[in-house]
Backbone:
């Protein structure tokens, strides 16, 4: 695997790992503030970030050793509305700047596993940002996120939905395999 794609996958792994932990913490804040459905969204999205980190790690399967990993990570614990804005900002950075650049390099270097892993992530991050925006709008009105019955997570690519889908629009996974939160 080319050095630049390796570095990008390591950075993406680090960023997704940090996002997972950040969302778990922010979900606890949402629950304490009386927004249990926002917590469910944070929890489902945290699991999605774990899926993305796993895809990146598996794409690096032939790379061994210890590396310093540089990746962008937001810090701070605010009120739920502030945490949702932080989530929107982080997801938007990933799908508008980070992943498009990483994918372009991986495509140029013909790193198919890396392209696949990052494609799933970039498409899911677009949805995550949208869902966090819906949640933020609700919280700004003093309401919890409206959820049909559960927040659903595709276990293959990390797609998140507020209602059960027929199939995952990103990877085609059957909705019957989705994880409900």
Residues:
């Amino acid at each position: 695997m080319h050095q630049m794609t390796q570095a990008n996958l390591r950075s993406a792994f680090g960023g997704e790992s940090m996002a997972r932990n950040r969302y778990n913490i922010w979900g606890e804040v949402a629950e304490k503030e009386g927004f249990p459905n926002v917590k469910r969204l944070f929890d489902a999205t945290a699991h999605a970030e774990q899926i993305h980190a796993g895809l990146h790690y598996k794409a690096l399967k032939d790379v061994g050793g210890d590396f310093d990993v540089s990746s962008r990570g937001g810090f701070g614990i605010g009120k739920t509305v502030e945490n949702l804005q932080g989530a929107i900002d982080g997801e938007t950075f990933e799908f508008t700047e980070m992943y498009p650049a990483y994918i372009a390099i991986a495509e140029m270097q013909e790193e198919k596993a890396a392209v696949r892993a990052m494609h799933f992530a970039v498409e899911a991050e677009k949805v995550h940002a949208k869902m966090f925006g819906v949640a933020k709008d609700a919280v700004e009105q003093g309401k919890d996120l409206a959820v049909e019955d559960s927040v659903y997570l595709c276990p293959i690519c990390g797609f998140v939905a507020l209602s059960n889908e027929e199939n995952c629009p990103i990877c085609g996974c059957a909705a019957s395999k989705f994880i409900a939160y």
Remarks:
- The chain has a mean pLDDT of 94.
- Residues 134 and 145 are 7 Å apart (CA to CA).
- The radius of gyration is 16 Å.
- The longest strand covers residues 152-153.
